[in-house]
Structure prediction request, 246 residues.
Amino acid sequence: MLKGKTAIITGAGRGIGRAIALQFAGHGARVVLNYRKSISQIEELLQVIKDSGGEAIAIKADVSIEEEAKLLIKEAVKEFGKLDILVNNAGINKDNLLIRMSEEEFDQVININLKGTFFCMKHAAQVMLRQRFGKIINISSVIGITGNIGQSNYAASKAGVIGMTKSVARELASRGITVNAVAPGFIRTDMTETLPDKVKEASMAAIPLGRFGDSSEVAGAVSFLASDMANYITGQVLQVDGGMIM
Ligand code: NAD
Prediction:
């Protein structure tokens, strides 16, 4: 499905990013695993991919710093000669009610989720424009569509990702580059693990399919959008949420 393609996945060490990396490698892509801090998670993932016959390298970069995002793209292209797919998955949350939220909590979330996506797209697009081919998939969230109590910073960042996805999709379409977003609902990862039981119960009640999602189910949507099967799809937001919002 992705044979011969080269892909960068940001924040690939765990959770949804890890699942995307595993699926991409399984579909035959050569993957660049970006990480910010934890080399041990990445080393384990590199080994798993290698053991199953896949090809992967790891590149350290904090995507919220433009120079590091630029180097990530540059090193990936240097290693594999081209860049077909970029998945902007790296993201954080720093939840708080509006009146308690600090400027730092607001800025950290915007800087990683929104600006990090901007920096990676900007530098990847320069390569993709020359190639006249590319697929960018940005991980947003259903919270960017509906909003959520205690998540004004996160919702703003993820709504921003959707607006940016549609703008960049329009800018790059004439050069054969597609740009789409995937908006997961409630997926079992470290990010959601720490939520209070009350929040988990309320979320579960709102999911028609009656269960939380698995990272591999988000990866399935991302793999589709990254493949040639999605060549005529751009500027879209694909919700992977068990019907949570519709
Ligand atoms: P996670 O916390 O398990 O993983 C996030 C990864 O991003 C981590 O590996 C982390 O090191 C990395 N990261 C954070 N800041 C970074 C930076 N500045 N540079 C590079 N890497 C960085 O979270 P997850 O649940 O796997 O989430 C992945 C993406 O999916 C995020 O964008 C998140 O907002 C989004 N999402 C998750 C859910 C969910 O229910 N889990 C729902 C909707 C959207």
Remarks:
- The two ends are 29 Å apart (CA to CA).
- The chain has a mean pLDDT of 97.
